[in-house]
């Protein structure tokens, strides 16, 4: 009953939110009219429907359907989700100390953190948790991941499956600290390397501390690694950039249909070092706050950006408190870099026939200028100064990641290969051939954009009666696509082997071992070091 009331109370609170933030940009009467229609409909439906209804479930469906029509970042958060967001920003929580993947009937351990409860209990990446205490995951209708959380020092029994074998273990929950800077090290050539993995409340403090320590050790150049960083707090993105640029520099601006959300954000502190040569690594999983940092440093000609075009998440969200401890996380504006580029890649205002948001095409990109007059472009995300093949994710790579093929192969590799140190690891041509055989044995398939278009052509041909006449040509096209998909595994071998190597190294030596492997063999880091070592090349890139 409480849940039902909270859902209804949420919707009852909507008029206040709408009227106070958008009433002046929409017709006030129309909003009131639509709310009255919905309220009347909701009441009549629950009172008169032939079967018993669940008002809370109906309201949940209504809310989610309404928000899904906007963008994927506008969400309704219940009390638990509000608390989870606070934990993410704080950088500490109480749990088992592992990244997990939630599926319909199981929870998969993606990465146990070294020396935390899951690791101490013997859990490994790839383990499938099927029971938590006496509760079977498949029978739990809510978010089963919540069952893993609990009070500090509380114990929990787990039943899990490993390579087909059922096992049990128990662990004691504990405080888990999520470091924004999990690794930094002085490399050869007096180059400091800093990994910034997220923008929680400690991001700028930890980055500043790492920089100071590296400089004390003799660092004269810095590599800042933002690859895979999904973003976080805007204030921390400003503060991280402020470490390398002076006070009073514009870092980003936001634009909205709501006047009060049109804002500019500049650095407010004295920088630690505005002259030290700086290289920033990004890829397709660097998003939001990561893109603000990379984009501003690029526009100000303060750093050379290497890797692949970033994700393109340039929509700003703000939580709005509702009743019963719930929140509406609503998109309020768009981010822009100092030169005026919009970071956002997908246009949710315009969609294709399947309802997917359209991506801005190259012909629609606009040219902007950095402080030194270098040409840069919008179109979503930050395009690096130096593009590297190993950083890019092609269709085949995205399909492998989406279907967990790389993750699952790494699990098999871990249980069939012995490895003592990160330095001795090398993913060979023979290993890659074995990976391709593994894909065949598991029936791996994916659909290309061309195949999706071809389906439409076939459907149209059938409708118009041309299928028989085109059957030969269609067969040839399908065979050509199939051959191209086979060749894609070879054409994109570099990026796929890089991801396979990373996933495998983590299985043996955790994230710490992966970073140690990175600084010796990762092509992006090696290229960044090369550019930083060549002072003339570094300056020529920034001068354009």
TrEMBL record:
PDZ domain residues: 81-164
Keyword hit for Coiled coil: yes
Ranges in a coiled coil: 467-494
SUPFAM superfamilies membership: ClpP/crotonase (SSF52096), PDZ domain-like (SSF50156)
Keywords from the named record: Coiled coil, Hydrolase, Protease, Serine protease
Any Pfam family matching the protein: PDZ_6
Domain of life: Bacteria
CDD domains: cpPDZ_CPP-like, Peptidase_S41_CPP
Family: Belongs to the peptidase S41A family.
Protein name: S41 family peptidase
Organism: Salinimicrobium tongyeongense
């Amino acid at each position: 009953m409480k849940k039902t009331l909270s859902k209804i109370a949420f919707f009852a609170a909507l008029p206040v939110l709408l009227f106070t933030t958008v009433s002046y940009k929409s017709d006030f009467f129309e909003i009131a009219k639509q709310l009255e229609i919905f309220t009347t409909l909701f009441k009549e439906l629950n009172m008169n429907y032939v079967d018993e209804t669940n008002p809370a479930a109906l309201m949940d469906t209504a809310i989610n359907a309404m928000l899904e029509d906007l963008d994927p970042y506008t969400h309704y958060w219940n009390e638990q989700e509000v608390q989870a967001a606070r934990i993410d920003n704080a950088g500490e929580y109480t749990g088992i100390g592992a990244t997990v993947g939630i599926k319909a009937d199981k929870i998969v351990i993606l990465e146990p953190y070294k020396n935390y409860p899951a690791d101490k209990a013997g859990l490994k990446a790839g383990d499938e948790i099927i029971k938590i205490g006496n509760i079977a995951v498949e029978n739990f209708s809510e978010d089963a991941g919540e069952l893993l959380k609990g009070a500090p020092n509380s114990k929990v029994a787990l039943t899990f499956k490993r390579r087909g074998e059922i096992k049990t273990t128990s662990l004691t929950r504990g405080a888990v600290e999520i470091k924004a800077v999990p690794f930094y090290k002085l490399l050869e050539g007096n180059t400091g390397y800093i990994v910034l993995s997220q923008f929680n409340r400690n991001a700028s403090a930890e980055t500043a501390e790492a920089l100071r320590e590296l400089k004390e050790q003799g660092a004269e150049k810095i590599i800042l690694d933002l690859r895979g960083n999904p973003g976080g707090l805007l204030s921390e993105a400003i503060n991280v950039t402020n470490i390398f640029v002076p006070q009073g520099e514009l870092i980003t601006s936001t634009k909205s249909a709501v006047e009060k959300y049109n804002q500019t954000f500049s650095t407010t502190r004295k920088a630690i070092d505005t002259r030290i040569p700086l290289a920033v690594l990004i890829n397709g999983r660097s998003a939001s706050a990561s893109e603000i940092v990379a984009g501003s440093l690029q526009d100000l000609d303060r750093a050379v950006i290497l890797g692949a075009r970033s994700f393109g998440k340039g929509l700003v969200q703000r939580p709005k408190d509702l009743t019963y401890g719930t929140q509406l996380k609503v998109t309020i504006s768009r981010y822009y870099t100092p030169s005026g580029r919009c970071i956002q890649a997908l246009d949710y205002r315009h969609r294709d026939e399947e309802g997917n948001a359209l991506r801005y095409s190259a012909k629609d990109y606009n040219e902007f200028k950095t402080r030194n007059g270098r040409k840069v472009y919008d179109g979503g995300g930050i395009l690096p100064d130096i593009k590297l093949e190993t950083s890019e994710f092609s269709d085949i790579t995205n399909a492998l990641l989406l279907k967990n093929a790389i993750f699952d192969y790494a699990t098999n590799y871990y249980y069939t290969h012995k490895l003592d140190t990160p330095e001795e690891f090398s993913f060979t041509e023979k290993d890659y051939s074995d990976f391709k055989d593994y894909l065949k044995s598991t029936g791996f398939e994916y659909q290309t954009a061309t195949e999706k278009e071809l389906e439409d052509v076939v459907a149209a041909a059938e409708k118009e009666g041309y299928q028989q006449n085109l059957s030969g040509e269609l067969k040839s096209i399908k065979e050509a696509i199939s051959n191209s998909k086979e060749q894609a595994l070879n054409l994109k071998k570099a990026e796929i082997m890089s991801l396979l190597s990373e996933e495998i190294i983590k299985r043996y030596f955790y994230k710490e071992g992966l970073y140690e492997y990175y600084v010796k063999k990762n092509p992006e880091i090696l290229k960044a070091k090369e550019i930083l070592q060549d002072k003339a090349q570094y300056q020529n890139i920034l001068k354009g």
